[in-house]
């Protein structure tokens, strides 16, 4: 996990809870005008003036959401922030603050938490969000990360899941399936490593999809893109569980149906070749893979000229009447009902 | 944990993540004007208009912060909310919303989570806060609860840890040490039960302190009391770790010292008798016991007439120059330096 396995490690116990918080958070500065009081009191104080306050929270559990055997702690810290910011951007809002709570077992030395916080700090700096609070405690087993992201938006800019209308276009940012295929590569290499620890994996051909898994980026740029293009989505959600599950969320909340066209789903060539290598259907990966943190939104057809040809945006379908249901229109033109095959963390595998 | 151990249990897996969230949150309604959008989107949307937004977060871990062998799940849900609201009240703010994230292992049936949410719902109703978001996932071992509390306050009303001045009075609400002694009673009864499961404990003589441990109340009333008495504390903190640790936080943040008078520390008669029974020093319990969720604040001496004789408030000392340090003035008039003996969750016990 750490670069130098021989360096001397510092026990968390020697710092105590308050010392640990002070130590880990000293690198964070306040950059947002809306942050009145950050870390160091019972609560943070924020001032959004005429803007609305946007709040989202996520809990990441070792062994369920991440595997430290191939996820470097710095990447994990970065990704944990991305997962949360993605929810704020999915409201078409600006992310402004985060709180980070950690539970760690004694098997983690201070240096491991420093790595984790280095990733959190990097994400906070790049995405311009202030760390304003949190909690640090012990766990009896693994690492637990709980992040709350806070943002702000003008009332007129906020995009809910519930505004999609019949005939609206269904649009996705970026490409899909990369994070899932990156995970397949990492899990295969882990299995190889367990058999022969001297085997050095060559991840170079998979660098795009491995990075999609280990260091995803939330689509902050899409907020600016919408402003620039002067488009206003009618509904939006981030793609954390897979395209299929997210489409069903939009349909349910907006009381509409949907036709998704298989041949329109944007896939990176690396994803397609990895799918061939692993013998997995690439459409299934895009539909159910998850963790891509792209945005899925609907748009009035009248706005199509504004997004036409934009390399960041792909029209993948259109919304229909609710009673028509949500379907995948396959390459051979058959209609297959979409099902929420999103990852079920309660499945007893 | 559940009233009827023989009733049929429902697997979490059969509901899936989204079904579970829907099921558990259907009992919650939106009561706060500031809640524009609660559960059911990527993030919640809140509107605090001219008021400041207050945010606090806490993480509670099974085996570290609670023991389900004597903590009923409904009480746990209630207490988890209290722990967080207490931080908002400690800013002299009004609590308005919460988010609740849970990680549970498969050993919990749906009915157990319903109990937990019944406690959360009761707390939300009594304290008038809206549940506006969260996350529900699996854990490989125990139960993990992460709550973020959100509140609002007028700028002029907010009380930080940093405003205490030399000669200010140090004031505590309610009485101290009850939660810790309640825990001692519960742990003793657990040990007795483990030896002889037929032994029915008589907790009646300890009902006050057991309730302080299992069902603490956050001091929402103090905000109203301050308004009524027209007092404005110069600094404030909630007593979660113990009086000693909290005083040191105020001193450090306000750059002052403190004299705390042992004979002024408010103790309930039940705490005193339990301390005698267990052979524990009651002052030590108040200083280091924690979990009382009372408020500790400082007040300009000129305001003393306004609080004099108020049964909710006890003057326990006064602030001094920073270089005088923070001391307990004992009953025999010796000065003992205060140390942060707050519970260290990283201690390898």
Automatic annotation (TrEMBL), chains A, B:
It catalyses: thiamine phosphate + ATP = thiamine diphosphate + ADP. Reaction mechanism of ThiL seems to utilize a direct, inline transfer of the gamma-phosphate of ATP to TMP rather than a phosphorylated enzyme intermediate. One of its GO terms (biological process) is thiamine diphosphate biosynthetic process. It comes from the Bacteria. It comes from Maribacter polysiphoniae. Residues 165-281 form the PurM-like C-terminal domain. Substrate binds at residues 65, 291, 343. Mg(2+) 1 binds at residues 57-58, 135. This is Thiamine-monophosphate kinase. ATP binds at residues 117, 134-135, 161, 240. Transmembrane segments: none annotated. InterPro entries: PurM-like_C_dom, PurM-like_C_sf, PurM-like_N, PurM-like_N_sf, ThiL-like. Mg(2+) 5 binds at residue 241. Catalyzes the ATP-dependent phosphorylation of thiamine-monophosphate (TMP) to form thiamine-pyrophosphate (TPP), the active form of vitamin B1. Keywords: ATP-binding, Kinase, Magnesium, Metal-binding, Nucleotide-binding, Thiamine biosynthesis, Transferase. Its EC number is 2.7.4.16. Mg(2+) 3 binds at residues 42, 87, 238. The gene is thiL. One of its GO terms (molecular function) is ATP binding. Belongs to the thiamine-monophosphate kinase family. Residues 40-152 form the PurM-like N-terminal domain.
